[in-house]
Each structure stands twice: as C-alpha cells, then as structure tokens.
Specification:
Elements lengths: L1 H6 L2 H22 L4 E6 L1 H8 L7 H20 L3 E6 L1 H7 L7 H13 L5 E3 L5 H27 L17 H8 L10 H19 L4 H5 L13 E3 L2 E3 L1 H9 L2 H6 L5 E5 L3 H9 L16 H37 L3 H8 L1
Parallel strand pairs: 1-2, 1-6, 2-3
Antiparallel strand pairs: 4-5
Length: 343
C-alpha cells in the first residue's frame, strides 16, 4: 500500500482514497450490528483484482490497492471477523455468462481472492454440477428480464394519474406496480425484481409526464442512483449480480430476521451502493394479538424490546467511536503521501 502511494500521482491517490472510504463507510455501519461480517464480492471488484495491472484501465489498479487497504483496516485495526463470499450470479457474470465452466470459474475466483489474502466461500451451491444447473436458471431469468425491460422501454408511460372518480391523484408507484410486466422467474427473488422494474417504470413516468406536476411530486427523483440497477446490454441484462447482492445484503431484512451473521456487499457500483444505503435500517419487532394475548405480558414484551433496542444503540455508538479511533491510527502513517498530493 505505501509503495503504491509513494509513486502514485494525484488522481491515483484521490481514486484510492475515495474507493477506500466508500468500502469503509458501508462495512463500519454494518459492523455496528455484528462484528462477524460475510463480505459478498461484486464482479466489478473481482475484475479489479484480475485487471489491476491493465495500463488502459488505471482506475482498476487504484481500486485494487484501496481494497487491500480496506482489508488491512477491518481485519488488523477494527479486529472484525470477515469471510469472503461469492454468490452464484456473480460467478455467472465472472464466467462470461456461462462461457467458462463452473469448475473453471470457481478455480479462477479462488485464485483471485487468494491474491488479496482471502479464502473463498461459495454460497448457494455445494458442487460445480449444481452451479451449472443454477447457471441455466439464471440465464432463463435473464432472458425473461430482458423481455420485460424491452417491453417497458417500448411502451408509452404518459398517464393522467386521475384518482377514483376523478378526485385526487393516483400514487405513481402504485400505478407502476399495477402495470409492471409479469414475469416467471426460476432463480431470482420475485419481490426484489419487481421492485426494481417498478422503479424503472416510475422514472419513465417522470420523464414522459412533464405537465403532471402533482403526480411528479409523488415520484422518486429521476437523478437518484438508488435502484437504477437493471439495464439492457447486448442480448442480455447488465448488473444481474446486483439483484442477488441487493437481496442478500439488505440490512433491514437481516436485522428484522435477526441473522446471526451480517452480510455486506463489496462493490464499487454506485447504483447498488445507493440502493443498499436506502435499505440500511436496523429493525426489530415484537408481536401482540389484541383479545388473545395477555395485556400485561404484551406490555412486558414491548418494554423488553425497547430496552434491548437501547442496549443495541449504546453498543453501536461505542463501536462507532472505537472504529473512528482505529481509523485515525491507520491513516497516521499515510498522511505524508496525501499532503504531497495536496501540495
């Protein structure tokens, strides 16, 4: 890391620092919930490792060194337990969408992860043969998604947004949900796919209904990167892995289900990153059925939940302070390189 910074120019240092801080921010936030993190690697990060010496793509090398620095920071300074994981869809992307066999891509990914000092944990399957069957299902879903994206693209989304009997304004998101193409999926989680398609429709509605000011105020900002994930590419769909990472690394769902381990994505994809920040809420719940459950017992459960929530908040705040202090110590020997960049 220091040898890289010693010879890096100003742009390289800026790219390095930006990438490092992005990875650090997400991991630190998730680590306030659990200090045992499953790091799910996006394909763009795997390609950064593979192409780090490509002179025509210098950004990949800058981000590769940021990844090394990040791993040193979380393991040696934050003292977190981290495990490198790669999902089936990311393997599908890394294989060139099935151009390489499952066995070949698994071996390649193992070697790439070993180059940053990590052992690889493949998730969702136990053998290359099983992964091959998954590749077929993923490809089938990709074709269905492409048809849906083309349908949305070729359709006019001009609407009057009039409420029932002409009163009020229809909520654009609900109208988009009603008109969202129905697709049969064999691999991906249907709810997340539909959610992403609805956001695409809503953005089209915003763009095509410039005169519907009331309705537009109820729509998401079209410039916002969050959930702007699915895109057509060639005869397929770009960023398929983001669907799976959005499903796996949704912090709201993980905390609601009280997952023993917390999964966090390792990516430089701005849209996926923004989407996960939108879903980075820590949640807890308790249930009480009126008329069935004892009222006093329900009240005790509620008070217990509130006290537990307070304890978690206090623990999270303590961890934030500890990470902040460790981060300062980590950057102290590196300050000289960034001062030179400023000068």
């Amino acid at each position: 890391m220091e040898s890289f910074l010693a010879t890096a120019d100003k742009e390289a240092k800026e790219n390095f620092l930006s990438a490092l801080l992005r990875l650090d921010a997400m991991a630190c936030y998730y680590a306030t919930v659990s200090e045992r993190l499953l790091l799910f690697f996006d394909n763009n990060v795997l390609q950064d490792i593979r192409l780090r010496d490509d002179v025509e793509q210098p950004l990949r090398g800058h981000r590769f060194h940021a990844l090394l620095a990040f791993l040193a920071l979380v393991e040696d300074h934050y003292c977190l337990d981290v495990f490198a994981c790669v999902s089936p869809v990311v393997l599908y992307e890394a294989s060139g969408r099935g151009k390489h066999t499952p066995k070949q891509v698994e071996e390649q990914v193992r070697l790439l992860m070993a180059e940053v000092g990590l052992a690889t944990h493949f998730t969702g399957h136990s053998a290359p043969k099983e992964l091959g069957e998954m590749f077929k299902r993923i490809r089938s879903d990709e074709k269905a998604l492409r048809i849906a994206l083309d349908e949305i693209k070729n359709k006019s989304w001009v609407r009057d947004f009039a409420g029932e009997k002409g009163h009020g304004t229809r909520i654009p998101f609900s109208l988009a949900e009603e008109e969202c193409p129905k697709i049969q999926l064999t691999y991906f989680e249907p709810w997340h796919v539909k959610f992403l398609l609805i956001h695409i429709i809503e953005k089209n509605m915003y763009r095509e209904n410039g005169d519907k000011k009331k309705a537009r105020r109820l729509m998401s900002n079209p410039q916002e990167k969050a959930f702007n994930i699915l895109k057509s590419k060639g005869d397929g769909v770009e960023e398929l892995g983001d669907i799976e990472l959005l499903t796996l690394c949704d912090l709201s769902s993980q905390t609601l289900m009280r997952s023993p381990d917390i999964t966090v994505e390792i990516t430089f994809d701005g849209s996926l990153e923004a989407a996960l920040w939108k879903r980075a809420n820590v949640q807890s719940r308790t249930t009480f059925v009126g008329g069935n459950d004892d009222a006093h017992d329900g009240a005790r459960r509620f008070v217990y939940m509130m006290k537990q929530s307070q304890r978690r908040t206090e623990k999270a705040n303590k961890r934030v302070m500890e990470y902040s202090e460790a981060r300062v110590k980590f950057f102290e020997p590196l300050e000289i390189y960034f001062k030179k960049a400023v000068d």
